[in-house]
Amino acid sequence: MSSGMLADCCWFIHRPHPLTLCLFSSLQGSRDPMFLTGVSFPPDWPVYSETLIKLSVYGENNGHHWLTSSNFLGSSSFSVTDLLKSKDQQLSLSLRTADDSATVGTVVVSRMKMGEIEDGEVDHFTTDMHQKCTLVYESSHGSVNDKDNGPIMNAVFKNAVCKVYRFQTVDSKWMLVREQMAECTLSFSIPKQLIALYIQEDTCRIQELKDLGELSPHWDNLRKDVISRYDQIIKEYQDTLAELEKLTGPLFKPSCSKGQKYLEFIPINLHTQRMRVMCPRKTDSFYDVVTVGAPAAHSQGFKNGGLQKLLSKYESEKKSTAYQCIYYPPEQTAKAREILCVVSQLQPHISALADQLLQTAQQSSSQPLRDVLKSLEEKTEQFVHALKDELVKSALLALHAARPGYVSKCQSSAQSSPARADPHLSTAEKQHSVCNNVDGSQTPRRESRESPVHSDSIPHHKEYDEEEWDRVWVSVAKSLNCVIALVDKLQEQDNNNQESAPSHTLADVITSHKLPVATVVWWDELAVLVQSLKKCVAEVAERARRSVSFVLLQEAACSMAQGLQLQQRRDAVFSQALAALACGFAMRLYAGLEDKGFLRQLHAIGLVAQFESLLSTYSEEIGMLEDMEVGISDLHRVTFRITEAFGNVTCFCPRDHYTVEVPLPHHAFQALPEELREGKLLRVLPVLFNVGINEQQTIAERFGDISLQERINQKNFEILEGIYCTLICLPCFQTQTDIKELLDTLGQNVVTKKRKNVEILWLAGMICRRMNGIRLTSCKSAKDRTSMSVTLEQCSLLRDEHQLNKDYFVRALDCMRREGCRIENVQKNIKCRKYAFNMLQLMAFPKYYRPPEGTYGKVDS
To answer: Which controlled-vocabulary keywords does the entry list (predicted)?
Structure first.
């Protein structure tokens, strides 16, 4: 027989003395208990009084001591305290089967005080023991000096479970492998912040709709309906947030709670997994992966498919049924939201810079004045380029047409013919013309809608001047030019030998207005001009805000209840995806604070986030994959900013542009490159690859449709290839020729018709790691298939990067799956140490994705 051992330890200042354990066994059917072996713990191992030791006993098979599931007899566990306090420092323990259903015998453990042992003897002794047992011990925490358990990491990652293994390399050396799994505080904090932002944004949207002013009865009724639906969503989100605030306890949502409505924004079973490899005379290596259930709206179900299918169907239906409102395609509504975001950010910024210019002008120094003026010019230029958009002008015309009593210039001649028949009608007027009914109600007429016009009872208002919007920009240009000219004049009067005044490029583009000459006291006149600029910018901002708010009113009105329900689904899926992404970003950032190449890539290019999915393209999992695809694609709207602070990771901004702030303590922040310290926004480059591996995928491949998987993999391969073309511009990537080779192989596999081609996942994972990216692995609940994938990846890394002996590969794989962190994850989720597979299912799995015997059984997941 042979034995495996685990240990569970906590942090203490003083280390206890090394322990030597002797094991005896008395099994049912055995009349002669026999001495097995002694086990010693080296002084540098974190074994303490609270350490938990687990003994796994295996039967002898034809004289060989192989650790296989077929000869596993039973296991038991005890703490070091139990042993030290026991009579004669000896324990008699009952051995239990793997499913804890029966007692199969006893095992006796004794502590022995041994004399001095030479180092060589200790090495020989422990080597002999580990030929039988690869798992060394288990730890709830790491030691205080561990890099992956420092103060920064402990602020975000909690409740760590650690397992340590010892494996033999091809040159007969020994590597120590430390596997740590932890929960993440961001599982709940990010979704709660997002929900609060959703509430805030929808509240602002209601106010913007109210600020549109007086509208005709038709549009006013639509507005009331939309506001009512926004109120309903806000109430639901407030109730959800209130429920989440009540929660205490674990920092993850277990897989059995994935259908809970009030938890729909929380990612499923989100954990981090870090493997640390310590080899003789080599620098320690770290490999991280985030495991999370597929971001999907489980509480809403998948009867009609997932987001990708629902959104496509929704857009086509919206086009055909939008007769009561003006249809704007998704790209234009996205542009409208972007304009709203720009207005909310730039207008107060310009106003603050204008006030700062006045304050600086009172000082005698000329250079600060020039710097502030330059910033004011740049921000005003951004303001102009963002808002001088055809969408804003078109929306202003549509809003004017929605005012009470409006009649377009074509209506007097169009009473007997539709708007389409007038060859002189502009495109905007065709799109936004309104047919007025006798009773005063109004219904917008689209080009394809041919209904008679009755306008006798409606007074003709003054026509809307389409050039009015352009004239508003002239006022902004005049004000800015006057400010620039006066500052130039001031500098000349002060006889400063500075460079010539800033260029008037922005103003010259907009207007050719001639600048006046200041003839009054310079500061008073500057104050007047600054106030004039602020007023003009505010007027432009208000007009733009109202126009794009009217566009968004159309979107909400055309969508009716279905569209807002889809938005709720998309909000929930995005929340899950963002929480996982933020967790991965924090983990990768903390690990790479001393990696100059990674930090340079971070601010120059962005961060690659590679999601690996094991969902099938059959039944409900198709809907999950469709949800996941949209949720991950939406992550391109996310940016990160690193700040100097102690506190939580926070996020803000509207639905289309999110910024997540990650705080670092002073010493870590000051070591960052200047671009990161200045608050540069860091892009996210998300990619998704999916390969189904279960029995449902077998059905899909033989009798169903796998086009969704093929499309996702092909599309994201092209994205990954584009990222590589950008990265090779950086010096640290110009020598990595293997990335190109891996990409070529991945491209071939993506287009190859091969069933359950898991090589796609292996290649994508390798490429991601070489691109300094973050790895995220998912299945339905991140519990079973995900565990098989993570353990396989870890053992593959040990083989390919650290020369794991080939004879140890399968043994290491089985050991990690039987006694490692992933079986602990199963226990945390369903209170049972069994992967949710049965024998028939596993026959359909690829070979290396099958767990060892005795570790699986069909349970409710």
So the answer is: Hydrolase, Lipid metabolism
Percent of the chain at pLDDT > 90 equals: 42
Please work out, in degrees rounded to the nearest 5, the angle formed at the alpha carbon of residue 712 by the alpha carbons of 316 and 741.
150
419/430 Cα distance (integer angstroms): 6
The predicted-structure confidence for 774-797, as pLDDT tens digits, reads as follows 999 999 999 999 999 999 999 999
Residues 854 and 72: their CA atoms lie apart, in Å, by 8
Maximum average pLDDT range among 38-47, 351-360, 489-498, 512-521: 351-360
How far lies 148's CA from each of 6, 51, 52, 274, 793, in Å? 21, 20, 22, 8, 20
- Dist CA 53 CA 438 (whole Å): 87
Which residue's entry shows tokens 């394809």?
448
CA 430/CA 439 separation, integer angstroms: 23
Closest CA relative to residue 830, chosen from 269, 290, 7: 269
Residue 404 has pLDDT above 80, yes or no: yes
Tell which phi-psi region holds residue 159, choosing left (phi > 0), alpha (psi between -120 and 50) or beta: left
Beta bridge partners of 277: 177, 285
Q: Please report the DSSP string for 86-122 in residue order.
A: SGGGEEEEEEE-TTS--EEEEEEEEE-------HHHH
Q: Is 779 a catalytic residue?
A: yes
Which secondary-structure segment (H or E) carries 690?
strand 682-690
> Are 794 and 276 spatial neighbours (Cβ–Cβ below 8 Å)?
no
**If you count them, how many residues does the chain have?**
861
Query: pTM (2 decimals)?
Result: 0.76
Closest CA to 648 of 158, 142, 149, 202: 158
Q: What is the DSSP letter of 850?
A: P
DSSP reduced 3-state for 4: strand
Catalytic residue among 133, 279, 325, 779: 779
Which residues are within 8 A (CB) of 681 and not within 5 positions of it... i.e. 6 or more apart?
639, 640, 641, 659
Pairwise CA distance, residues 398 & 389, whole Å: 15
pLDDT at 184 over 70: yes
* Phi-psi map region of 172: left, alpha, beta (phi>0 left; psi -120 to 50 alpha): left
**Tokens 């006046």 sit at which residue?**
516
